TrEMBL record, chain A:
Keywords: Membrane, Transmembrane, Transmembrane helix. The keyword Cell membrane does not apply. The chain crosses the membrane at residues 20-40, 126-146, 158-181, 188-208, 238-259. This is ABC-2 type transport system permease protein.
Automatic annotation (TrEMBL), chain B:
GO terms for molecular function: ATP binding. It is a peripheral membrane protein. Pfam families: ABC_tran. Residues 5-230 form the ABC transporter domain. Keywords: Antibiotic resistance, ATP-binding, Nucleotide-binding, Transport. InterPro entries: AAA+_ATPase, ABC_transporter-like_ATP-bd, ABC_transporter-like_CS, ABC_transporter_ATP-binding, P-loop_NTPase. It is found in: Cell membrane. Gene3D superfamilies: P-loop containing nucleotide triphosphate hydrolases. It comes from Paenarthrobacter histidinolovorans. This is ABC-2 type transport system ATP-binding protein. PANTHER family: ABC TRANSPORTER ATP-BINDING PROTEIN (PTHR42711), ABC TRANSPORTER ATP-BINDING PROTEIN NATA (PTHR42711:SF5). The keyword Nucleotide-binding applies. Belongs to the ABC transporter superfamily. Its main location: membrane.
Amino acid sequence: MPRPLPLFTKALTDSWRSTVAWAVGLTGAIMLYLPLYPSIGGSAQMQQMIDALPQGMTKALNYDQIATGPGYTQATLFGLIGFLLMSMASVGWGAAAVGGDEESGLLELTLAHSVTRVQVVLERALAILVRIVLLAALVFVLVLVLNGPAKLEIDVGHLFGAVLLFAALALLSGTAALFAGALTGRKVYGVAAGAAVAVLGYVFNAVGRQSPDVEWLLNLSPYHWAYGNSPVSNGADWGAVTGLLCISAALVALGTLALQRRDVGV
Amino acid sequence: MTQAIVVEGLRKKFGQREVLHGLDFAVEPGTVFGVIGPNGAGKTTTMRCLLDIIRPSAGSISVLGQDPRRAGTELRKRIGYLPGELYLENRTTGRRMLEHFAAISGPVDQRHVNDLADRLHLDLDRQTRKLSKGNKQKLGLLQAFMHKPELLVLDEPTSGLDPLVQQVFHAMVREAVDGGATVFLSSHVLSEVQLAADAVAILRDGNIVTVSTVEALRTAAVRQLRFNSTGTEAHDVGALLARVPGVANVAVRELPADGHAAGTVEATATLSGHIQPLVQELARLHLTDLVLEEPDLEEAVLTLYTGGDASSIGNAPGASRQPEGAHRA
């Protein structure tokens, strides 16, 4: 019987192991970091220590804001460890979706069946989106659960906005990886492109915050678009949400065009 | 009835390197069409073009009356394809893999799948990564045959299969053809194709050397001949061989007496054409040993290729050849 979205459901079921693995990783990170807030971020001693650090370093790590619960969550979870884990997951999935599949020789047989190339890219992109939404929902729930016990005092609406940006930022590096993989048919180029978006975004943000002379770098940083106004503290910049999602959608669309136009498996 | 496949002037360039130099051939519906040629001749590239996996640089292709580049998913539903290099996912079973492809290209009759798996002696519930090359190939065949497509495009279908399973495969091909399907298959071994195919195209370096029936090809192919005889002078044996049409490269020598009966003559030669006249002449000799080898594909191709003699071989009833493509070298 023809089932709806066969490639989407296959991509999801095939990757349940890795989805669970990343979920475990994110849960571990959240459980390690957030309960420590009362003894680290909230303590006066810690604040003195941070004040003693070079200003450039605290800015690069976003530690200038960790004195508050939302700032601490923003800096440690969304800005660093969560960002890292989520970007890795997303880039891995994006690079594997088309480029990796083609490189391993599997795409040829799939395309010989009754699917279009556009369908392959779209259904697999959708599967990446769903996995990212699942992980982001997990993060949302876990932070919410720890909000009280860890005395974080995060506004739920702000948290929702921050999680949305967290997901959109990961999606961007994932779709960049998907696009590069679809363009070249090589997984390594997909990983390179996705990692470049994530790492350069992070570096441009860290460097751009150092002085007004290099502030222009912030404009090139998706990381800064998402987190520039500290969404856990201040709520999401909805323009940034829309912008990130639009770029991701455009990358997927370009991915379909790229795959549509070339020879597969050569 | 329209032809199942019509290829005209098919060229394919990868960068600066042209691997197909203008192929022309047509496959009649309900026939088995074999493409043979050495590795790198362009067989796989041609097949990938039929499936729209790669795109021709020039020329036109019609598959089941449609251009594969534009036809979309409905056309590929009517085709079963076995890639030349079959890669399977590791973390799945044959059954799950087939279910996935059935969901895309179905509907598939599950009884038909089980029946084919039984005949091929394939365990569908084993992990694919644990399958041997031959068993993977069976799975590849199954996904190509399971939805009873109108056209089967099979790239080196018997590769890795043991002789018994090859027989099953040939039976499957015959059944598909009896059911009205057309089969387009490739091999680098003539003996594999000659069992299955009605017509054969020989591909070499991106050109079609000839399109012919298997019978005509076998006749044209060169065989190695070697025999020993006693009681005859060497020059008489040479003269006898010279009378047989198609015999060439004759070498005759008398063997030293030690270990052989006195007056043993060893002769080697090549034979192209019919066997019967040779056998009649040889019947006059007292043979102690005789070897007439299977026609060698490489030599058959070389003969047809360098000889420029392709026109002497009758075109197959199942295959028509566009005149401009025939003698391109």
